What does this fold into?
Amino acid sequence: MLHFDGLTPLHWVIKMMRYRRTPTEVQKTILQSHRAEQIEWMLERCATMTDALAAHAKLLQATPERCAQLAQFDLLCEVPFDPGAVIGGNTPYLSPAAFDADLLERNPWVHDLLRLDQA
It folds into this structure.
């Protein structure tokens, strides 16, 4: 993938929300119009984490159908990546769940905004 918008779906959600937490004048400087529209689209649909993850899947999930379309145009190149092979014995636990847990710990405001603690 030439570009990614988050290491996990939660990372993407927090990134989008963080953009909107910046002052309006800064947003106008750092966001291109298509990115601003993407963020607005997401925020209009995302009252809960379930909503946010559904928005992520709709926009970015590499479904078999999307992968097939990309492959038809020779736009899909799958390259395996194992950071443990490079880092060796010092490899931290790199699961998506561990990454997300750390991300939520560093961004406690997300709990309230996406009602994570509510059933």
Q: What stands out?
A: The mean pLDDT is 82. The first helix runs from residue 9 to 21. The helical segments are 9-21, 24-30, 33-45, 49-60, 64-72, 83-87, 96-106, 109-113. The two ends are 35 Å apart (CA to CA).
